[in-house]
């Protein structure tokens, strides 16, 4: 991790611990309330806990070292918060699925403000279930089928724009691709003016999301908040146009606008725009990181690439050398490529862990998780546990010929907040890979090892690469 990022974290931490110290004192567990002990582990230095250790090295090494030392449940103190880390499938299921009501989602206020406080991620209970039904409905296989031709067109146009041999930043280009697919699933075929406007302002929000949260004119964070306001205005303009023209669409915006509960209550404009922007946010960097890793894995292993090519070429021939478009049925019948995607999701584990907060004192397996403590299910450690995945450092898609044991494979999370976009994400990966391997070749430029965090792990420098169209070498 870059030294500047570490310094920023220390400053954030210092300020947040100073301001939260009285609150943390209140959180101190009253040992008389439940006769259980805290999990093993260390809380590090006063105030800063173990934040420096976590952010000055690969976070995966930090967690793996702890797990070796203390076992699958251990305590720590990071970013000003006492935490319990969970690296077992059972504990993860307990927190995210079977006892999810005891743990609430928790995000820094600055991030909540940037996405919008009414967005699905931040909620529990009835409001959350209502939103989830709407989002899941719109991203269900039935709705996704209709998107295949448009996603295919976006993929072909993206690949054509890269071909020609100039070096591109694969991650940045994948971000543009996943954003366009996100826009499609949210707004259907949106006109160019609104699309460009959304893109421009979203880019500013994206830059500010991980910046130091000082709301002073001139800072990246302040600029991002202003752009965030403009995003809401653009969504409102689109809603207004739809209402004017009495357009009833079946996309996510349509689902939100048509919603009415049994008492006749509808979603407010703010609730709609926070959730639209939230979904665009959830869909972009995640999908782009996994796509970038998948391209790297394919590039680094010629045999793997040949096997994917063989499967995709057969479909290409079936479609008369690509003259006919891909069908929904074909995207559902790419077993080898599908396993490559699952293995890429496991290997890269781009969401290494998630955060929850205990809403009451909770007992788990004889240990106490005190109220107010953060709880971190460690997906990556589970995906890289040799007892659950043999030789976890080897890229081996054949391991998915048999379904993984329950709660051991969670690239899309688990339980009530599990990713509703997982089918869309896999579908856009399959479509892009189909066109990439049947019509293009690519070469990674420069050093091919190393990981960067932004905040998701991506290959060093976003995987700079050159692409060529195989048919005419351009
Ligand atoms: C490969 C790509 C993706 C990965 C790895 C991924 C991963 C995840 C994970 C792990 C969660 C759960 C987080 C938690 O429990 O705290 C999540 C939630 C979510 N994801 Fe995804 N995601 C991806 C793509 C997408 C796409 C394409 C969409 C939408 C079009 C989407 C929409 C959402 C939403 C709305 C939530 C919040 C659900 C809730 O709180 O109920 N994701 N995602």
TrEMBL record:
Known cofactor(s): heme
GO biological process: sterol metabolic process
Binding site for heme: 419
Compartments where found: Membrane
Record keyword S-adenosyl-L-methionine present: no
UniProt keyword terms in alphabetical order: Heme, Iron, Membrane, Metal-binding, Monooxygenase, Oxidoreductase, Transmembrane, Transmembrane helix
Gene Ontology CC annotations of this record: membrane
Transmembrane segments: 6-24
Presence of keyword Heme: yes
CDD domains attached to this UniProt entry: CYP90-like
Membrane topology, from the record: Single-pass membrane protein
Gene Ontology MF annotations: (+)-abscisic acid 8'-hydroxylase activity; heme binding; iron ion binding
Family under the similarity heading: Belongs to the cytochrome P450 family.
Record's protein name: Abscisic acid 8'-hydroxylase 4
Originating species: Ziziphus jujuba (Chinese jujube)
């Amino acid at each position: 991790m870059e030294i500047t990022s570490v310094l920023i974290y220390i400053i954030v931490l210092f300020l947040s611990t100073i301001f939260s110290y009285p609150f943390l004192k209140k959180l101190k567990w009253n040992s008389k309330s439940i006769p259980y002990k805290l999990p093993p582990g260390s809380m590090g230095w006063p105030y800063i806990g173990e934040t420096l250790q976590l952010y000055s090295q690969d976070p995966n090494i930090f967690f793996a070292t702890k797990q070796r030392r203390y076992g699958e449940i251990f305590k720590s103190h990071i970013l000003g918060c006492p935490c319990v880390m969970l690296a077992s499938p059972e504990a993860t299921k307990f927190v995210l699925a079977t006892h999810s009501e005891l743990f609430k989602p928790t995000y820094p206020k600055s991030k909540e403000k940037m996405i919008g406080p009414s967005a699905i991620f931040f909620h529990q209970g009835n409001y959350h279930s209502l939103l989830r039904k709407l989002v899941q409905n719109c991203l269900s296989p039935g709705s996704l089928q209709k998107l295949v031709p448009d996603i295919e067109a976006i993929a072909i146009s993206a690949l054509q724009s890269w071909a020609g041999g100039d070096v591109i930043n694969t991650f940045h280009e994948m971000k543009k691709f996943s954003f366009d697919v996100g826009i499609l699933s949210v707004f259907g075929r949106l006109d160019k003016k609104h699309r460009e406007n959304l893109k421009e302002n979203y880019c500013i929000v994206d830059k500010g999301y991980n910046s130091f949260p000082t709301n002073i004119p001139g800072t990246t964070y302040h600029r991002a908040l202003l752009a965030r306001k403009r995003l809401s205005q653009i969504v409102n303009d689109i809603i207004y146009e739809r209402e004017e023209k009495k357009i009833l669409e079946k996309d996510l915006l349509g689902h939100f606008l048509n919603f009415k509960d049994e008492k006749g209550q509808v979603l407010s404009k703010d609730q709609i725009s926070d959730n639209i922007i939230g979904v665009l946010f959830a869909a972009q960097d995640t999908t782009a990181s996994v796509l970038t890793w998948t391209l790297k894995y394919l590039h680094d292993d010629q045999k793997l690439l040949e096997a994917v090519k063989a499967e995709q070429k057969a479909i290409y021939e079936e479609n008369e050398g690509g003259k006919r478009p891909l069908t929904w049925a074909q995207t559902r019948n790419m077993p080898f490529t599908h396993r490559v995607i699952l293995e890429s999701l496991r290997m890269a584990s781009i969401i290494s862990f998630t955060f929850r907060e205990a809403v009451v004192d909770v007992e788990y397996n004889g240990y106490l998780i005190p109220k107010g403590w953060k709880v971190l299910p460690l997906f990556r450690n589970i995906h890289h546990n040799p007892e659950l995945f043999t030789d976890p450092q080897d890229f081996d898609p054949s391991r998915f010929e048999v379904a993984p044991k329950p709660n051991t494979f969670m690239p899309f999370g688990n339980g009530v907040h599990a990713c509703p976009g997982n089918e869309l994400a896999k579908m856009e990966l399959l479509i892009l890979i189909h066109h990439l391997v049947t019509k293009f070749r690519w070469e990674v430029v420069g050093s091919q090892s190393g990981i960067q965090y932004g905040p998701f792990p991506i290959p060093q420098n976003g995987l700079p690469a050159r692409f060529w169209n195989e048919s005419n070498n351009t």
